[in-house]
Every structure is written in C-alpha cells, then in structure tokens.
Design goal:
With about 325 residues, this protein is mainly α.
C-alpha cells in the first residue's frame, strides 16, 4: 500500500500506483513548461504558486478517471495541466479579491508583488491553459468554457449575496457548485473522455466530480474553523476574519434565527464585529468550534461525499474505482 496524491490517498494496486505517480509527475513537468515565458519576471510570477506545491487534487482525479479507458492516451496529461492551470489562475484572482497575504504557506502573489501583477499573472495562466486546450479539440474547448462560465457565475453570486427571500445556505451551495464543483467535475470528465472511456462512464465520473467537489469545499469550510494547522497553508479562521460566510457560520445564523437563544445571538454579534482584532477573532473561533453548527457542516460534508461514492455504483469493481471511493473517505477525513 502506497500513499499518493492529496490527503494521503492509499493506492493498493501496484500498476495503478505506477500510473498515478507517473501521471502526476508528467503533470508537474507540464505545469512548469506551461508557465515559462521569454520574460523572466513573468516566469517567476507564474511559477510562484506552482512551486509552492498544493494538493494537485484535480490532476489526480483526471489520472484516476483515465483508468477507465487508456490512461496513457495523449490527451490525458495535457487536460490535467489545463484544469490545474485554470485552478491556479483563480487562486491569483481570489487572493486579490480576498486581500490575502498567504497562499500555500508562502506570500500570495499580491503580497509578494502587487494586485496588478497578481491579476495579470492569473490572466497569463488562463491564456496558457487555453493554448493547451486548443490542441485537445473543439469539444474539450466547449466543456472548459462551460465550466469556466459556471466558475465565474459562482464567484459573482458569492459577491452579490443571496437575493431577498432566498435561503442563504441554498445560495451558498449554488456558489460552491459553481466555484469548486464545476472544475472538479471537468477533471473527472476530461480524464474519462481523453482516455476513450464509454460515454456512460464519462457521465458517471462527471457527476462524481461534481459531488466530490462540493464535499471538498465544505471540508475546507470546516477546516477553516476547526483546524489548528490549515492544510491549504492558510491561517485558521482566515475566511472568518475576512467576513466570508462559510457553511458553519451560515448554519449558526440559521439556528440563531430559528431558536433565538441568547448565546447564538451573541456569537452572531461577535462575528458581525471587527474580527481583525486578534482577541475577538480567537474568541469567535473558540465559540464556533464548540457550536453544533460546526457538526452540522461536517454532516453536510459527509452527505456530499457519500453522494459522490454512490454515483460510482454502476462502475465495475477495479482498483481505480476503489481509489475514487477512497478519495471520498479522504475528503471526509479532512473535515474530521
């Protein structure tokens, strides 16, 4: 049994292990090649987050999905590079919007240089992803364009907030389905499609990725509150400090409205105050960690991970299916 990929995923089949390791190594080379420029400063900025590492969750999913066809087909590795470049580009832009100082344990691009450099570097990565994508055919271009539209729509919905009368939790789930689920769904789709898998398999792995993507983001929400050492390299409570309404906070507000308990109302008032103050921030984290709203967010994470596992049911038993099921367990494990 060998541990590969994010979260210590266990691969119990030697042939699959070799394919996954080789695929991820090829993706890493592809990322470095795709982020090179004739202008040294652009190369430095574009490779800033590539070299900082990361889970490579999306390329791993591409590699595993490709096992249901020919995992060595020529489009598999380039499509994994495309989804990771797209993801990295969004991180540059997210850090500008969130005014983040740290990403993956290193200074964010906007902190290292400035907002303009970070935005333009993200645009550069989008351009390089599009260049690779063009060689994968018009269907791949269309799929990626649709996913990117969903991703941007999710970001706009998050910025705009829920419309009057809309349940904030339902709104939030729509946001993360677009911002996170869309690209992870494409990862499963590209891996299966580029490998020549049957269309039914492509559909299954697309649905699996969509659900797993939501679970993945919800696990991040839980970790932002519960973890003392955030796996993404961000300081715990970063979203909380920045006023980003993640699922545990949304559950807290819903419970405060439904039950009207004094402690819930006081915690909501604390969250509405100035959390740039370290003492107030620490107190908010302490109270949220002990609140039932955090357990509810964990249960939601588990539910989406189990829906992802259930989507795999029609696939024949094999090492790749077992690894995809293990990914569901790994995502849930992150959320405690």
């Amino acid at each position: 049994m060998t541990v590969v990929g994010p979260f210590g995923l266990s691969v119990r089949d030697q042939a699959l292990e070799a394919d996954v390791q080789a695929g991820l190594a090829a993706v890493e080379e592809g990322l470095l090649e795709a982020t090179k420029s004739d202008v040294p400063f652009i190369t430095e900025a574009a490779q800033h987050l590539v070299r900082a590492g990361g889970k490579r969750f999306r390329p791993l999913l591409v590699t595993l999905a490709a096992q249901f066809g020919d995992p060595h087909a020529p489009g598999v590795v380039p499509s994994a590079v495309v989804v990771e470049l797209t993801h990295l580009a969004t991180l540059y832009h997210d850090d500008v919007m969130d005014e983040a100082d740290v990403r993956r344990g290193v200074p964010s691009a906007n902190a290292n240089w400035d907002n303009s450099v970070a935005v333009l570097t993200g645009d550069f990565l989008f351009a390089r992803a599009s260049h690779i994508l063009a060689d994968l055919g018009p269907e791949a271009v269309r799929i990626q364009a649709e996913a990117f539209e969903r991703l941007v729509t999710g970001q706009i919905l998050e910025t705009a907030g829920p419309r009057d009368g809309r349940d904030p939790i339902d709104h939030y789930l729509d946001v993360i389905a677009g911002k996170t689920g869309s690209l992870i769904a494409v990862s499963g789709r590209f891996g299966a499609m580029m490998s020549g898998a049957d269309e039914s398999v492509v559909d299954i792995l697309t649905q699996y990725g969509e659900r797993l993507g939501t679970a993945f983001q919800l696990a991040d929400d839980v970790l932002d509150i519960a973890s003392d050492s955030h796996e993404s390299g961000k300081t715990p409570g970063t979203d909380l400090r920045e006023g980003i309404p993640t699922l545990p906070v949304l559950h807290l507000r819903a419970q405060a409205e439904a039950r009207g308990e004094a402690g819930d109302r006081e915690l909501c008032e604390l969250l509405d105050g100035d959390l740039t103050d370290d003492a107030r921030h620490a107190e908010a984290l302490r109270l949220l960690r002990a609140h039932p709203a955090l357990q509810q967010a964990r249960r939601d994470t588990i539910r989406y991970a189990e829906e992802a596992r259930a989507a795999l049911a029609p696939l024949k038993a094999c090492a790749a299916k077992a690894a995809l099921e293990a990914l569901c367990d790994a995502v849930v494990h992150r959320a405690g």
